[in-house]
Amino acid sequence: MIIAGEASGDLYGSMLAEELRRRHPDVALVGVGGDKMERAGVELLCGITGSFGLIETLSSLRKLAETFFRIIGALKRHEVDVLVLIDFPEFNMRVAARAKKLGVKVLYYVSPQVWAWRTGRIKKIALSANCVAAILPFEKEIYEREKVCCRFVGHPVMEDIERRHLNVEQLKREFSLDPLAPVVALLPGSRRSELLKLLPPIVGAVVILKETHPELQYILPVAPTVDRGMFRREFSRLEALGVRLVEEKAVEALSVADAAVVASGTAAFQSALLDVPTVVIYKLSPITYRLAKILIKVKYANLANLILGREVLKELLQDDVTAENIAAEVRRLLEDSEHHDSVVRALDEVRAHFIGKTPTAGVVDMIEEIAGSCAGGPPATSLENAGSRT
User: Fold this and answer.
1) Same domain, 210 and 78
2) In degrees rounded to 5, what are phi and psi of residue 217?
């Protein structure tokens, strides 16, 4: 059983499903996910929606409760060898605890960010999970320090990028971009709250840059979950300024960019792994931001900066997210060649942690080991019994 609660988890779950079916054609796959997992052969107990991961409304809570009990019922009905939990911590940790009581072996993939806040969750993970497949290099030491079985497998974002075999020249033609003029990618996020806060300053930044750098080209990938009608005014203004709006294709848009302005999150990490000098932006409600400042224990919002331990990609947060600041940082990335090159060299350091890693295959290895059914391969390792002390 594979459970993912958000779009990125749906992608990672589909990659797992494909590899499991390649190795074990007769494998039975059930779970919670989206279209990608379903197309990869997972029988969905429940599909995810745009609000599923937010837990902000009563309807979302009702859906979560229904999904939870549907999962528990399926765990009781099916002979599940391994339950794989992908991210979505508040929900998945509750599922893990119940699965453990039912005797189901649990593997956590894309684990909760215990290094950022609520470190006490490590003890709960130790009680419910047989092992953790870590996607960041520093996570392994954190978990092992607490005696939690953990293996660093690499990041599925890097694997997804490598699998796409991106051809920059071909993509520029597809996007009708001038191959000789610089390109700026704009990724304001996909959630309504992100777009409400980040689209206006991005529009303003493009207006400023148009005055000083008329040669720049812009591309903005729009996620399929975005309600275009709600943001018709901003999108129309961007198109009037010459910004190319494309459906999805965030990775492809970043791959053709010379610089980018990206909402903090998965897309900002994708830009780092693609060696794109990036301005990372994010804005929360004032109350949420004040709470985050108290609770979150890390210095940076972006994973590339966290891995390196220094601010390589400029982070503009809260009141610093202004059109003027965004435009100034984009100009610096494009005009200051020494700064540009130092950013690219630092991003190469980040990439070095993940090049050559095959997280999907690594996680399937762990699934086989935990299940103790290697289908003709070597016998199960200690992962099969990892966590049995609890």
Assistant:
1) no
2) -110, 150
Residues 6+ apart with CB under 8 A from 235: 222, 228, 245
Q: Do 83 and 221 share a structural domain?
A: no
- Cα dist from 19 to 37, 280, 297, 308, 365, whole Å: 12, 33, 36, 31, 10
- Exposed (0-12), middle (13-18) or buried (19+): which is 115, by Cβ within 10 Å? middle
Domain count, the chain: 2
Answer yes or no: is 390 within a domain.
no
Read off the DSSP letter of residue 390.
-
> Using one digit for the tens of pLDDT, what is the confidence trace for 336-350?
999 999 999 999 999
pLDDT in tens, 99-109: 999 999 999 99
Residue 66 lies in a domain: yes
Does residue 249 lie in a domain region? yes
Residue 99 sits in which domain range? Answer: 2-154+357-385
109 within some domain: yes
pLDDT by residue (tens digit) across 283-316? 988 887 787 777 677 789 899 999 999 999 999 9
Q: How many degrees, rounded to 5, is the angle at CA 388 between CA 67 and CA 73?
A: 20
The Cα–Cα gap between 256 and 176 comes to 11
d(CA 253, CA 221): 7
Instruction: Answer whether 239's CB lies under 8 Å from 231's CB.
Output: no
Contact of 74 with 30, CB cutoff 8 Å = yes
Asked whether the beta carbons of 91 and 54 are under 8 A apart, the reply is no
Tokens of 227: 């309600």
CATH code, 310:
3.40.50.2000
Check: CB of residue 362 under 8 Å from CB of residue 133.
yes
